[in-house]
Structures
1.
Amino acid sequence: MAEQGVPRRGSRTARAIAHVDMDAFYASIEQRDRPELRGKPVIVGADPTGRGVVSAASYEAREYGVRSAMPIGRAARLCPHAAFLPVDMAKYRQVSLQIMAILADFSPLVEPVSVDEAFVDLTGTERLLGSPLEAVRQIKARIRCETGLTASAGLAPNKFLAKVASDLEKPDGLVVVPPGGESTFLAPLPVERIWGVGRVTAKALRELGIATVGQLQGVPRAVLVRRFGKHGEDLHDLAFGRDDRAVEPFGVPKSVGAEETFEADLRDPEGLKTTLRAHAERVAAELREGGFAAARVTLKLRLAPFETHTRSVTGEPTQDGLELYQRAVLLLDRERVTRPVRLIGLSASRLGPAGVGQLDLLDPAALRRERLARVVDRLTERFGEGTVVPAALLTRRSSRRGAGSV
Amino acid sequence: MEVVLDRDAFLKGLQMVQNIVEPRQTLPILANVLLEADAETVRLTATDLEVGARVSVPAKVASKGAITVSARKLAEIVKELPAAAVAVKVGDNASVSLRCGGVIYKLLGLPPDDFPPVVPAAPESWVTLEAKTLREMLSQTGFAISHDETRYALNGVLLVLQGKEVLMVATDGHRLALAKRSLGRGVGGATGIVPRKAVLEIMRVLGVGEDVQIAITQNQFVLQMPNFVMTARLIEGQFPNYEAVIPKGHPRKMVIARGAVTAALRRVSVMAEERNKPVRFTLNPASLRLSASSQELGEAEEVLDVDYAGEELVIGFNSRYVLDAIAAIETEQVVFELKDPQSAGVIKSIEDEGYCCVIMPMRI
């Protein structure tokens, strides 16, 4: 390659990184379990007469223009004859664990990105498994054989390229980017394929006459840095397919969240707060399960008809449901919501390890709540979600499925 | 308006108010300083709507009037001027000319009418303090003010005027610092949370010699000195019950030399994890072992002679908190009062009763 930078971590020997991405994961699981749905459009998400969003759409439904994260009502108009199914997160998690276990047989370095995708570092596994390409073929075959589902995979010298590659020939695809072929592979692709190039950056690039990665490769680094600052450096590196991030098996998730679209717009502030409390408890439980504490709390509000606001606040790292709730309420109160609310969500980010650290001086109940949470978590594990809830949530319907990790 | 000021006095005046101006404002005029000329002074006023300050600078006033100009630019200009007379004259359309020696500036101002008024409350009574005392109390508490925006009631110093006492408390939820002084006479009763910005500004402008007067009204803190007044809107919200947090009668008392423990903590904490700088305190009769370790880097420990006669106790603290607490003490010997690894420790001077800092331990 013409461009030669400073030696980078991990660049001495070519790495072999696979990105494994399940095809229409939720919808495929439902089709697998209900043979009558095979070959038909399936949309997993909120109630189609209600106002939630699409969580996943089968390939048959995608032909009608249905996409995930689209309002469910729109999906129902685009594809009225589809089978609409609720999200069964517990089932999908089960399958996810099965898949991650398969991946773990191929490398100790497996980094789950979400329930349905993961990176696998296959560098140096040749003597055990044969060539990395052979290993990826085996991974796909075992997933199909053991779960009845198909996965698409990308195999490349780094995470960025592997991820781009896995997406190119979905479903059931396998795309390989050989070492040295990075620039050629990327050149014909649109710039939107590059990580961090969203609508805004893509528009700015278009104004410079750049639509493909190949055109971006022709722009000197200094020009990109002048125009985009630090982000310009990343653009330049990624355009040539350079990415030296390691596959991190115990990767800390970026955020944990819960949200709910209401069946009818909610105006009552108490109702909003009760929902937030439920979200906070759920998020806190998930943080505790992972052993994390979160410093940042984000409140998400969707006002009728479809206007989304997010507000965040940063404080001491916590994994305490009440504390998360109080921070979210602070944000909610500041918003002075006067319009009906369609969706409310809470997410916790800036995660770090919990358990070590500073004890609280002003909240003598904090230690007690911590001990209580541990007991509640154990009961939940044994008897299921909703076994023990804060009294404030007793009047609420038993917690809905449909909220989950975001 | 047409006035002549002495450059040094002008600069000093500007420097007393210019920090009030925030780098980014909600209203353009808040970037400006208000200049008002009457009889023999020019009054300079700055505000961010929460905190306001006004200073009077002696001047030869040819014609009275008022104008507002960019506080940052004006201070920048006056700082560069030679020590000579500065002539300021307001022209048409809120333009301002400023001459000193051979240099002429033309500044584009904004009319004074839009400048938000800074109105110091007229309290029923003032409390008079030596500037030195006020500074001491603020520096004994200011470090513990919280930066956590989710706990805004903690983003300032609680000021309590009660009986014959002035009391200040600040806490960030991990530690609490309290300073208390008694006055010769009764001061009535008033309480308010003074925002951090006002606290920092007071410490910046406070001289050493003079007396200052302070007061708390319904929603305002006011401080006045000769030719200077500062107002601050009190933080609304409930300050925690500080008395409940301060432990009383902890059984384990350790007395140690301030300089020795400070130096040792600084040395040992080099090896502590960066975010919380945790250091383990292991107390045994007559000895204190400080130790810190980091998984990636290694470890450090140091043993000190102390005056302690109780059983062994191992407790972790954020060493920055301990250093802050000790730095506010002036006597040679400091006292640590401790109970167990989960209970807050108290650090104070061996003699002076006017200060204590309560620190919650860390799990390490």
2.
Amino acid sequence: MNLIRYQAPDSAPWSTLDRWSSLRDELNSFFDMPFWSGFGRAGQLFTEWSPALDLYESGDHFVAVVELPGMRKEDIDISLHDGTLTISGERKRESTNGETAQRSERYVGTFRRSIALPTRVDASKVTATYQEGILKVTLPKAEEAKPKQIQVN
Amino acid sequence: MNTLNRENREADRGQAEQFITPQASVTEIADGYMLEIEMPGVKKEGLDISVENNELTIIGRRSLPAVEGMLVHRESRPENFRRAFELDPSIDGDKISAKIDQALVTLTLPKAEHVRPRKVTVS
């Protein structure tokens, strides 16, 4: 069985009331119906994986923090092009030999997040760490974009 | 497995701590079930897994990385995670095991010996 979850990255508002919670389950099971999977890409519209991204800014750098639980480091791609940071990756479906999915909310497949940085960054000094399922990308600002103190003579 | 959702019921009753519901998958495997829960920012030390009255509760408290600077764009939520499942009676509650890798919590819930299929040989 191929259970597909419709896009609901933030399920909290639904969970606060059990009534809504069961409604959400009903909606989920509606989208799990074969009818939707038959639509191919149309079905994917509801299943897009969009991990949460936070952006911090300080005087000399930006830090992007992305929630990517249960990934392998090698499956995460980070690129910088024209001042836009793009983080993409793929989570492969694990073998399903003799296994039956009973409830499937975790996203499988690819994701892609892009964020336009407000100022120029030094692409050669970008660093990234991945710990506890959280990707942290540090992007130092380009020299000309750093705040400067100008002395009056 | 009867994975009835009993998420955040206590939170509704004005409990001090607010939780959010993490995403989970339940898979039936040969001798039981496998439960996978995504808890970004949670370390082994922040996990609290308990079984009471046939209800399995998983709480994950985050230790988020300290980030220098001002938050200019936010999509993540700061709350900790909590999710509860009603265990199928066939599961042996004493034999549940758990591991965590990059914030993906994997629980193995084996079925009790007496409910496993058995081959009877005709003599």
